[in-house]
Amino acid sequence: MSILKTYTPTVTVAENKQIFAKTAALLLWEQLEEMHNPLMVLPTGNTPGDMYRYLVTHHGKRKEIWERVRFLALDEYIGLPANDRRLFQNWLARDLLDPVGIPVRRRIVFNSMADAPGEEAAAMENWIKDNGPIDIAVLGLGVNGHIAFNEPGSNFDSVTRVIALSPETRQSNAAYWGGLDKVPERAYTLGLRTLSNAKQIILLVNGAHKAEILNKVLCGPITPDIPASFLRTVANVTVLADREAAKDLL
Q1: Is the pTM of this model over 0.85?
Q2: Could you give the CA distance from residue 195 to residue 72 in angstroms, rounded to a whole number?
Q3: Is it the case that residue 46 has pLDDT exceeding 70?
């Protein structure tokens, strides 16, 4: 049986909301400045919102850098029309991609309405193999330990695919949809193996409600039951947490 090689992620704790946003933005920006044709993955949700606002406010005019960035979708709901505001690609377009001027032609996204979602997922994985690897993957952490939409039980060798969303994930997104019954049941996600090939990974975690799961991710068993624990098998991972999320680590 093979022995899993492990690494210790770099953990940075931000004292408050403002420092968290600024630190996250600079972690991303300082790398983008040095890259010629970066392939960048970004999350949606509440956690990265202030980071995006900081980037738009302080670095949004640096068009010569943003225009050479390639944006790659991390995950996406299945079954929504292209103009649906709740599509992650549209959410990110509003929050960051449009304001800083990343060209639409340099945004690689899923077709939510694809007739054959499995083929769409395979096509995305093949695109990454041909045009990657991912240079920078910024990720969030779900309360059940999911990364992107890699739910508990996801194999560490998983690639881009269609996945059934867990009740916990759908419940955590219900507020955006006006009720749990309206949240899609399936989604696309980049796989854990796909993400593990990224040159740099930044995990953003904030809020006291994430403290328990962050402690399990960094200090508990490395197991598919906690998909984010796979980050300890990957080099070049930085974890940025606010003090509330990191309280069980201190």
Answers
A1: yes
A2: 11
A3: yes
